[in-house]
Specification:
The protein is of the alpha/beta class. It contains 26 helices and 14 strands. The protein folds into 2 domains: about 240 residues, Rossmann fold, CATH 3.40.50; about 280 residues, no CATH class. The strands form 4 sheets. Strands 7-8-11-3-12-13 form a 6-stranded mixed sheet, sandwiched between helices. The chain has a 4-stranded antiparallel sheet with strand order 2-1-5-6. Strands 4-14 form a two-stranded antiparallel sheet. α20 packs antiparallel against α21, α21 packs antiparallel against α24 and α24 packs antiparallel against α25.
């Protein structure tokens, strides 16, 4: 029988229990996400039914089951990483756990690595350490923690290799190192061996086994993750009992034998992690796993068998065979036990008989098992949670700064593709300058040429920046959903950092683009016009970023976003003031960001022109001043027109960003994993 009130030499253990977990999802899921789908009411289907069980520190548990059995759903439900219609309780030593508490004491290792591929292994861990460690942790302590983790998971030699160049096993170990930054008590791993060869898979599970069953503890680094004052109370109590030393070290060895220790010799660096904030605890890990090999299966201390969204068995690994044998299912010789259990459950008759009996036996034997122990350990877990709750994240402003650094680093690492795109951008500028270089004095013929060149300036800036950002959210949504869901940073910090990172790029490209054209077309008008036109084009680019981000957040794929942009583009262009007299449909022109950009540029160019050459013998009306040019295009001519359009572009950008933020927030908080 498990002992949840004690953990041998390690002191009281922590026991996590889940009771009657049920999870409901819409019966008909859509293949592509959009906010329209979120507004529909759908019939719900229960995919996790009355799941109950437990795990305690020192356990390494494997969740086994066929495809669709509910392994990942159970894992996400226990770890509180599941949003939506989830019912039931998750308790720690009898104390109910909320989502924010679980994310502080546990880590979730996803099936697929979702991190920034352009970072090196060291850069990624160091970057994440700023978010996951206490705000008062020094840079030297963070660097030391990162170095220890890289050494512990065997990535010291690959520390400065970019993530995209690491092997599958190395990326999996890097993900594990990331989750160990805060030294969590509970580890939840979704298919940690997926895509790995047998040796790499065995190494990953063996690392988890070592973390769960053998811990060497040092208390002198408690402040590195949770802060210097996080454990003052506990330290005082310890000194009262006569310890009195600054560093208390103990070694906890549980469920280990000579063959396991022999196998651990290729992982000597795991002792580095002994200096951990949660030093008085062993860990517990629970993994969903698909068809483990026999040697990997033997590393697990316990297994959970699932079928049809239900737990049909939980117990020690070596006892599972006896349960099946008692029901008439004999484990063949030289057979992988995991394959035998899964095959038995997959069999139609076996699933009905063995599954039902095992489930009933499991529910009967675990009913009320931990009640007495919880009463003894409840105050202990309460003290532990108080220590964890002393954790303070970095401030919002610093989050924005770090995320901007990440975005800019990604851009610099992808400088080759960025330079190619910038080259084509400048080719467009040169082409326009050659096409309109024949514009001479202000004549009746050049009125149309100037209008056309200004229209092309405006369009090029808006289309370049709007379509240049439509890929952002479809590619980043998995990372955002995971990291925001884990509480790594706030969604508002991410969004603000994203927007701010585009502002210097918008101003730089706008002025460089204009410089080429201005030098061959408008150079006679002076430097002040150059500055004002460049500023307006920069604001147009900023507004275009908002428009592009809006399209990006409206759909889950960049292909869908670019294809569905056509109707929006058409409406904006029609009411931009070039293709039709916008006064024929009053008010609609103010919905177009093209209108504000065109009007401000045209106003800035023509408002000071008092004389336009007008030949005596002409067959068409003659425009004599710049004011008449503006009136003919239905543009405003008031003194405040330029600055009003600048302000309007900022308002349009803000509106687009508010709507985009709301759409992304709906995605992050929608039902499902994370």
């Amino acid at each position: 029988m498990p002992e949840s009130g004690s953990s041998g030499q390690g002191g009281p253990s922590l026991c996590l229990e889940w009771k009657q977990l049920n999870y409901y999802v819409p019966a008909q899921e859509q293949s592509n996400y959009s906010f329209w789908n979120e507004c529909r009411k759908k019939r719900e289907l229960c995919i996790l039914q009355d799941a109950s069980g437990h795990m305690k520190t020192g356990d390494l548990i494997a969740i086994l089951g066929g495809s669709g059995a509910g392994k990942t759903t159970l894992l996400a439900a226990i770890s509180q990483r599941l949003r939506g219609n989830l019912t039931g309780d998750v308790v720690l030593n009898g104390m109910a756990m909320e989502r924010n508490q679980m994310t502080r004491i546990s880590s979730f290792l996803p099936q697929f690595e979702i991190n920034v591929k352009t970072f090196t292994a060291y850069e990624h861990l160091y970057f994440m350490s700023h978010f996951k460690m206490h705000r008062r942790t020094t840079k030297s302590e963070k660097r030391q923690r990162v170095a220890d983790l890289l050494l512990a998971v065997g990535l010291r030699d690959s520390a400065h290799t970019r993530i995209q160049q690491l092997s599958g096993g190395e990326r999996k170990r890097l993900s594990l190192a990331e989750e160990l930054i805060t030294d969590p008590i509970f580890l939840f791993c979704d298919e940690p061996t997926t895509g790995l060869d047998s040796f790499s898979a065995y190494s990953v599970i063996k690392t988890l086994r070592h973390l769960c069953t053998r811990r060497r503890i040092a208390k002198h680094s408690l402040n590195q993750v949770y802060g210097e004052d996080s454990f003052e109370t506990s330290s005082g109590e310890s000194s009262a009992s006569g310890s009195g030393s600054k560093s208390i070290e103990m070694e906890v060895v549980g469920q280990s034998h000579e063959s396991l220790l022999q196998g651990m010799r290729d992982l000597p660096t795991l002792s580095i992690l002994n200096n951990s904030p949660n030093g008085t605890h062993k860990k517990a890990a629970i993994c969903s796993i698909h068809q483990p090999t026999s040697d990997i299966f033997e590393l697990f201390t316990h297994i959970i068998l699932m079928d049809g969204g239900r737990i049909v068995y939980q117990g020690r690994t070596e006892q599972a065979a006896k349960f099946f044998t008692d029901l008439g299912y004999e484990l063949p010789l030289n057979c992988n036990p995991a394959d035998f259990y899964l095959k038995t459950l997959a069999d139609k008759d076996g699933k009905e008989n063995a599954g039902a009996v095992l489930r009933a036996k499991y529910e009967h034997e675990t009913d009320g098992l931990y009640t007495g122990s919880w009463l003894l350990a409840r105050s202990y877990s309460g003290d532990y949670l108080k220590h964890v709750q002393n954790f303070k994240k970095i401030r919002w402003v610093y989050q924005v700064y770090l995320l901007m650094v990440r975005f800019m680093t990604e851009d610099l690492r992808n400088i080759k593709s960025a330079l190619i795109a910038f080259g084509f951008f400048m080719i467009t500028a040169v082409t326009l300058s050659l096409m309109y270089s024949g514009i001479g004095g202000l004549t009746q013929r050049t009125v149309q040429d100037v209008g056309g060149s200004i229209f092309m300036l405006s369009n090029e800036m808006i289309f370049t920046f709007s379509y240049g950002v439509t890929y952002i959210f479809p590619a980043a949504l998995p990372i955002i959903r995971r990291e925001v869901g884990e509480g790594t940073y706030s969604l508002s910090a991410y969004y603000v950092a994203l927007v701010l990172s585009f502002v210097p790029v918008a101003f730089f490209k706008a002025y460089v683009f204009l410089s080429v054209i201005y030098a061959s077309i408008y150079y006679t008008r002076g430097f002040f016009l150059y500055l004002s036109m460049g500023f307006l084009m920069s604001l147009s680019a900023v507004a275009a970023v908002g428009y592009g981000v809006f399209l990006s957040s409206l759909f889950e794929t960049d292909k869908m976003a670019s294809e569905c942009a056509a109707p929006f583009d058409l409406i904006f262009l029609i009411f931009g003031g070039t293709y039709m007299n916008v006064d024929t449909v009053p008010g609609l022109k103010y919905l177009s960001l093209f209108f504000y950009s065109n009007e401000a540029l045209m106003y800035n160019f023509w408002i000071d022109i008092d004389n336009i050459d007008c030949p005596v013998n002409v067959d068409h009306p003659c425009i004599k001043t710049g004011l008449e040019v503006l009136q003919q295009g239905s543009y405003r001519t008031a003194d405040y027109t330029y600055w009003l359009d600048c302000f309007s572009l900022l308002v349009v950008a803000i509106i687009f960003h508010i709507v985009s933020f709301w759409l992304v927030r709906r995605y992050v908080h929608r039902s499902g994993y994370y």
